[in-house]
Amino acid sequence: EVKGTLAAITRLVALSENVIKNLLDFSRNKPSDIRSFRMREVLEQILMLVGKTAQRKNIKIVIAGDEDLIIRSDSNAMQHILFNLIINAIDALTEGGEIGIEYAALPGKLRFSVSDNGTGINSENITKVFNPFYTTKSPDRGTGLGLYVVYNLVEQLMGTVTAVSDPGVRTVFTVTIPHDGRG
């Protein structure tokens, strides 16, 4: 138990270092590090980091997608995008609930979404969620940079990200990036 927790903390520190590195790289317009990787493997690594938090809050996480799907993209950017979207979904759920993560290769693109059945985002705020420093969280819970980073990383990958919310019912963040299907 202690070894697993320490390993998770070590991975979280490494991921945090990568977030800072990516922010610095983004500000310097450094070229991406493109490689092939299994989408499910990236998700499993993230869930190892956030799994305990989800478990403590009694949150069920459901993944739908081809376990063997190999994509070719910037793996660090993908990790940060998914990590931020999943953390936001966990934060949107107070006690209990479900997070859905779906992904699929479509002709010429990869589409993935992270949804939750939490509090939701009202219509006047949904257009602001990708703005820097915009947050509905208390100051000790968020900086308002997570979705801003997501937006910019997705743009670097020449993709799009959208947010749709029916408050109290479901919120869905969908990312679409170019993908040639060759992994």
Short summary of the structure?
This protein is α+β, with helices and mostly antiparallel strands.
What can you tell me about this protein's structure?
By secondary structure, the protein is an alpha+beta fold. 43% of the residues lie in helices and 26% in strands. The protein is built from 5 helices and 7 strands. The protein has helices at residues 2-28, 39-56, 75-92, 123-126, 146-156; strands spanning 34-38, 60-64, 70-74, 98-106, 109-116, 160-166, 170-178. It has a 5-stranded mixed β-sheet, covered by helices on one side. It has a two-stranded antiparallel sheet with strand order 1-3. A hairpin with a 2-residue loop joins strand 4 (98-106) and strand 5. It is globular, with a radius of gyration of 16 Å. The termini are far apart.
For this entry, give a set of tags.
183 residues, alpha+beta, 43% helix
Our count of helices gives 5
* Percent range of helical residues: 40-55%
Strand order of the largest sheet: 2-4-5-7-6
The H-and-E topology, N to C, reads as HEHEEHEEHHEE
Secondary structure layout plus pairing:
Layout: H1 2-28, E1 34-38, H2 39-56, E2 60-64, E3 70-74, H3 75-92, E4 98-106, E5 109-116, H4 123-126, H5 146-156, E6 160-166, E7 170-178
Parallel strand pairs: 2-4
Antiparallel strand pairs: 1-3, 4-5, 5-7, 6-7
Helix pairs in contact: 1-3, 2-3, 3-5
